[in-house]
Amino acid sequence: MGAVKWLMKKITKVFGTNTSSLFYSLLYREMLKEINAITHDEELSLLVMREIGKKSATESCERHSSIFKFMPGTPEKVLDYFEILWVVVFGKELEDLSYEKIPKENSQYNDYILKIQNCPICASYGTAPEDTFDVSKLSPESEGMACGLCGMLQSVANFILRIKQNEYRIRMIEQKCMAKGDECLQLLCKVYDYTEWQEFKATQKKEQLLSKVYLEEEDEEFLPKSKLDLVDKLQDAFSLDKLEEIIDEPLESIKSRVADIIRDKLGMEPEHFFDYFRNYEDDMMRIIGFLFIHLLNEYGSLVEKLLENDTIAKAIGYLFKQLKEMILLFIPLDVVNDYHTLLINFLDGLAPSEMVENIKEFSGKDDLNYLFEGARMALEDLGIDFSELKENVWEELKKEREDGLISADPSMIDKTQERVPKIIQIIQELVMLLTEILTLPIRVAISEGHYGVKTAVNSVVSEEEGLAGSIRNRFDKIFDQIQELRQ
Amino acid sequence: MNYNRSDLLLADATMNQLRNAIYHLARFLNRNGVDNLKERLRQMGRNISKTYMKYWIPVDNVNLNNIREVIVTIYKNILKSSVSVELNEVEQLIIVNDSNCPLCKYQYNDVEVAGCEIILGMISEFINMINGNSREKSVLLLEPIRVQESKALGNNSCVQIFNYKLGGTR
User: Which of A23, A55, A56 comes nearest B48 by C-beta?
Assistant: First the structure.
């Protein structure tokens, strides 16, 4: 699995509202039973459940639309990211999934069959007296128990296509259901062009079965005409699938891609673009730091939401200050300078030579300071009041105890005692993570010198022993700690 | 081989979309003439408890001494939420304050019921089933009273109120 996909899944899971999967599955069952108590018709109940799933997923997508702007924008790619959709919808890792392509003549895209070996909705279904929704009454052609989930997945996929202004739509049909006795959950993903889709929806409205119950009318689907903000402009160039490709490519390819993006999106030559920053190279660095934080925030305004909580804002503020002060203790200056050289190599050929010369006069340490200054401005924008922070976090804790802000209620003390080690562990993991990332040029340089490029690449990308694996483990720990803290 | 329900105990699921679905279900039930929506939701909660208890039980019996801890444990384990529990021994009430209720987050103008009615039914059934038909005087039985506050009704957190009776046997 690609690094970006993995990170996206982790972020989605950590920042969602979680319950135990068993509760989720039983709540889903109860909803289906309530619908059936109205319809007294199992097949109709599944259709209603699917409609409810579709509506609830669309509602959720509309609330967090900026997240989906970074998803890939074609039906094929969206299905390629099915694992992320599954995590977005169900919050659980998809452990066993296989694809089968069904070639489709006279169409730009193929249909797909997805086979999933583990369906949480059907788990142990039929073993409890409360499992009263009778699957034996379903005809073999009918969808199965996971149709609500299927409706959710379909809506998320189509929301992405709509927001990416793609005219194709996906219909997901549950062909096999384990509660019905099938060997797996099987979804048929049919791709429609926009006209076919409208025709399909029209026939669905006339469907006899659904007209037997009162169901809310589905909103008319619209196709956005214009692109509005910075994210909209960048989404084509920086969608997840493109980021995955970029991460895997060497510097020259990245340079050529960046040049293409500047030409396509901004309509100017890269040299002209960078010329705007000539003699303002320090500001350019600050802008990079500033934009980095704001781009992080574009994923569902997560940073902003985190910083709404005063305690978390303070904790992140202290972490940021600490990081800025200590970064050179952890990272050898040589490493920082290696990155500085990497930046110069990157700009060489893209930016005017005078600008490259100006940047050569900076040191790696200067780069870091400018980046931190920019990031600090962005964090201030998003809610951290740095002027309120003490010299270090321990003074802050001492102050709060004197003020009595930490409750004397024993349960609160317990909570604090439980949380502090986790926060410290997160900070420690973050610092270690940063250190590992920043050793990248040294690893590459040493490996390259001794064993050639192949070994260098392996030392970085190997999931078990390489830097990538180590970073992934560290992120796993950080996400676990955050998840525990949020509970 | 598919999961079984014990496997699901060990995993977390993201509620965002299913939470929205509760309110779409409420609209559907309203439109189709259901007039006892709160009771329907509580019954859903009771049914969830009945099945859930086959796979997980926090303690063998619940009394006045451990009721707060038991409720906190159930919320933490099932709903992944940290709640505060207040005991009013004069009125025999238990008041649960949940600032991160997984079933309520947004206020809907067209739905007048809170999703955590489900939790009200679930918690009371959980406690009552643990204590079963015990005739011990110290065990306690729970009855859902009301959702006093809810994010779904425009409040900042969800406050669920239960009435308790000592003495076992329903």
Answer: A23
Q: What is the pTM of this model?
A: 0.68
Residue A78's pLDDT is 76
Phi, psi of B87, deg, nearest 5: -110, 120
Q: Check if the beta carbon of residue A113 is closer than 8 Å to that of residue A86.
A: no
| Contact between B19 and A53 (Cβ < 8 Å) | no
Q: Looking at the partner chain, which of A28, A88, A130 has a beta carbon nearest the beta carbon of B18?
A: A28
Nearest-CA distance B2 → chain A (Å):
5
CB contact under 8 A, B51 and A214: no
Q: Which of A195, A197, A168, A11 is nearest to A77 (CA)?
A: A168
Instruction: Mark A352-380 as b/e (b = at least 16 C-beta within 10 Å).
Output: beebbebbeebebebbbbbbbbbbbbbbe
What is the reported pLDDT for A451?
A: 46
With a CB cutoff of 8 Å and minimum separation 6, the contacts of A332 are: A442
Spell out which residues of chain B touch residue A122, defining contact as CB-CB under 8 Å: 2
CA of A170: how far to CAs of A69, A159, A300, A319, A382, in Å?
17, 10, 24, 44, 37
State the best of B28, B34, B81, B98 to mutate against chain A, taking most chain A CBs within 10 Å.
B28
DSSP summary character for residue A351 = B
Q: How far is CA A339 from CA A152, A251, A445, in A?
A: 44, 13, 12
Contacting residues of B for A213, CB less than 8 Å apart:
28, 32
- Closest Cβ–Cβ partner in B3, B48, B79 for A118: B3
**Sheet containing strand B83-88, strands side by side:** B83-88, B93-98, B158-166, B140-149
Query: What is the C-alpha to C-alpha distance for residues A67 and B11, in angstroms, rounded to an integer?
Result: 24
Q: State the pLDDT at residue B44.
A: 98
Task: Give the residue ranges of chain B where pLDDT is below 50.
Answer: none
* Low-confidence stretches of chain A (pLDDT beneath 50): 225-228, 401, 403-408, 410, 450-451, 453-455, 459
